[in-house]
## 1
Amino acid sequence: MEKLREILREGRRVGEEDPRRIVHAFKVGVALVLVSSFYHYQPFGPFTDYFGINAMWAVMTVVVVFEFSVGATLSKGLNRGVATFVAGGLALGAHQLASLSGRTIEPILLTTFVFVTAALATFVRFFPRVKATFDYGMLIFILTFSLISLSGFRDEEILDLVESRLSTVLVGGVSCILIAIFVCPVWAGQDLHSLLASNLETLSHFLQEFGDEYFEASEDGNIKEVEKRRRNLERYKSVLNSKSDEDALANFAKWEPPHGKFGFRHPWEQYLVVAALLRQCAHRIDALNSYASSDYQICKDIKKKLEEPFRRMSLESGKAMKEASTSLRKMMKSSSYDIHIISSQSACKALSTLLKSGILNDVEPLQMISLLTTVSLLTDIVNITEKISESVRELASAARFKNKMKSTEPTVSLKKSDSGSIGCATPINSRDGDHVVAILLSDDDHDDDTSSNNADDDSINEKTEDGEILIHTSCVHGVGMMPEYPLGVRILQI
């Protein structure tokens, strides 16, 4: 009884994990019932009156071809159908050619044809592109060609054999494809899209919480809370092993017809580019996590001095990934993550300057190695985050995501005050999620620098006839309290 309860609990867990699995099981049952009706009732008269024992091919087609997603079903169904048709035609030609040589030579020729065809087809299966896309079709081609060629030697009704084989496979394949597409369809492309957005969010969660883990874990006396937080952070490990799922989903997605927001020739290959960068980031996060819990930790006083840029690097990188995840999930273009990337790079430079100031002179060698390795890994993560954001931007452009902006690029209107030292920034045509900035003009001393730098980069601002300066927010290179820029402004995030 205990074993039965365990099986029931496992079945419930699998069903709750993805309820579509239960629906898929019913869909396979419906397809088998539909195919069986061709054998029992012969609804199309002469087209199905010779099914007889050959009906097993239709049943076998349903069992083998019907997969969980539409793309996987189409891939196997089309592979099986085309392979059966081509192999049947070649087998018929081989039989006719061999029959012209007489009864003595005919079996030798048929055996030779089978050997050559099977050997060549098996060798072609090793080609990477064929292996990834047409492997199942090549397998069915070998099987069908061999069966029809060899059975045709003793069966003079080879045409009927070919026709029945093709028709049963056609009935089974079409039944699977129609049910997969029109009855609660599961799209591989949608699953790949959701998986990528989920992986981005998972890595984002780790990076946003890493500062608390690194600087506060040792101060937290509640061991259970620390362990719970650590297990929650280690969800990133699912990204490390996602390559096989991503490759399979991308391969199946290419077979699917346009559906929902995924149009014809959707850039599925770009999804794999983003996924590869995410795995690189996850590997560095895995190493970073191990060094964060290393036994060789620097003293709290030095750690406190490094905390602010350290936290900013991690937090801003996490926010950039969060923005990229939101952009991908909503299928809308966004440049918000650029602000966080620039901020994380600024924190990286600040941390580098701090380390060069001699703050680690009295640190033990092993502690210094642990710290510098942690800094190096976090710097790598900042750089990879920039690459991930760029690849997401390329994906959004290739997939024609909706533009988050309204009619024109948002700008801020900067009007000089009478004193010429302080300005007022107001957003124009702003969009949801924009960061509001206040821009303070520097003193008049910087007028010469401003004019010279304006000539270097006309894209940063535009001056209207009434003396008003328009600064594009997408060209503002910084967030938070930033250094003074060539335009003679300082930028504060509100």
## 2
Amino acid sequence: MDKAHELLRQMLDRGLQPTVVTFNVLMNGFCMSGMLQDGEKLLKWMLEKGIMPNASTYNSLMKQYCIRNNMHATTEIYKGMCAKGVGPDANTYNILIKGHCKARNMKEAWFLHKDMVGKGFSPTASSYNALIKGFYKRKKFSEANQLFEKMRREGLVANREIYNIFADINYDEGKMELTLELCDEAIEKCLVGDILNMNT
């Protein structure tokens, strides 16, 4: 927090008035450097000084906690964000969905996905990938396939692992035409790699 105070002091000395954007830059710097406690102290200081954070402020913290598999901390920050009347943006939802999928909280991830879409936000390809992989691991193939097809209709590109999953499923079911179609699609989208070595 001393580092943040020093930066703010330098700004004020130069006649610059810090804004929420300024604090977001500081927050992102703390979080990217792994200084999450300093980031939380900065958030608390902003609130004490009456400077209202926005979704980006909270997103920086939540993203790093998700990367560290700390969904408890992530959820607490999200609850605090909502309690302050700060609405989630598309990035907030994508961060939370991927975090919950990684933590195998598929019920919560699916709830967030539906809430996100209902509010008019668009999931990213990485969010779709996480949901599809999560459903596949739980053998919910129908749900995984529906998301995969929706993703393709929206023009989003699945990653190589997702193409591998569906190529394997269709190959095992004897659906060679669809298997080859997926392989061709993966190659067309430059997802060359182990999908071509499937079942060899």
## 3
Amino acid sequence: MPLPLPGRPRLGQASLLALLLLLLVGPARPISFQLPGKARKCLREEIHRDTLVTGEYEIGAPPGSSTGPSANLTGRAAEALCSLPSLSLLQITDSAGHILYAKEDATKGKFAFTTEDYDMFEACFESKLPVGTGRMPDQLVILDMKHGVEAKNYEEIAKVEKLKPLEVELRRLEDLSESIVNDFAYMKKREEEMRDTNESTNTRVLYFSIFSMCCLIGLATWQVFYLRRFFKAKKLIE
């Protein structure tokens, strides 16, 4: 019977750790909201650099919706109104305004991109009103956006590398642990930058305070000598 290698957890311990960590993290749930006609709604999220981002979206009329002009129509008129193009625009940009993904007349689809730097990314949905249709009914937008470990397709990885289910879970746990370590490293770097900024600000404030005190002392000394010469000129003092 082969013995486990030193320095590595046993198979049962590794599987238990993977199961517990995956249960704690849990899958991300999609976001859904109502998009009125002629409206624009945006979602923002900060994402680290060199991170894979994937997403799925679907735009359509909410089930059982009774709002909008189709509420007072029946038969073919309501069907014709509901069959009009949604003219919804999906656009994903970074803080600099660079367009990472854009889709006109978006109804359903997927997108994927890799971030180049740590930044704030914005996904905007905009509903445009067709000419001559009046007020559009509200649309239901469903967005499932994932990044990092969540964005990886481990089923495809398992097929390509021919991994067993336990090995797939261990791979997922390894990637998740690496992501957590990277997050802590980034937080440490940010803390160092903030500490350096704080120390630099304190040093500047100290120098400015010393300069202000020197200016005040110099001004007070000048006022004393000036008043003394003035009073001597007026022969008020000797």
## 4
Amino acid sequence: MRVMCVVLALAAAATAALDAKEQKKICDTLFEQESLSCKTCDLMEEVSPELSELAVHCRTCCGGNEEAKYKSATLEVDQRTLAWLPEVAAFVKEHAPQLPKLKVSYTTSRPTLVMKRPNHTDRVAIASWKQQQILDYLKAKLE
């Protein structure tokens, strides 16, 4: 299992700058999308910080067995940390205003997407994500 995680992490690092079409090829190759739960991606990041880049790629692929899309999302972010997180700061400035189902909430927490559907809420840590990854994830997961 550990060897597989290392191989996947290396492959994910090599594909960090791919466009959406190439990313889909990677998803099809590295992950079994129909059975990949986004919670599995969250677990990768919890188990080892070294797997955070792989978890980012995993989240762009997951959801084959997930429930319906989310009704809305809230991006919780601490304004003081945006100076150290230029990708998240750029997303908040450039993309968040264009997403009507996304609310930005300034808190004292690490950057987190709170994804909401009736009777269910998921929290996704996004501090290490690039702005395009955040945008792609929200476009894929919101109704």
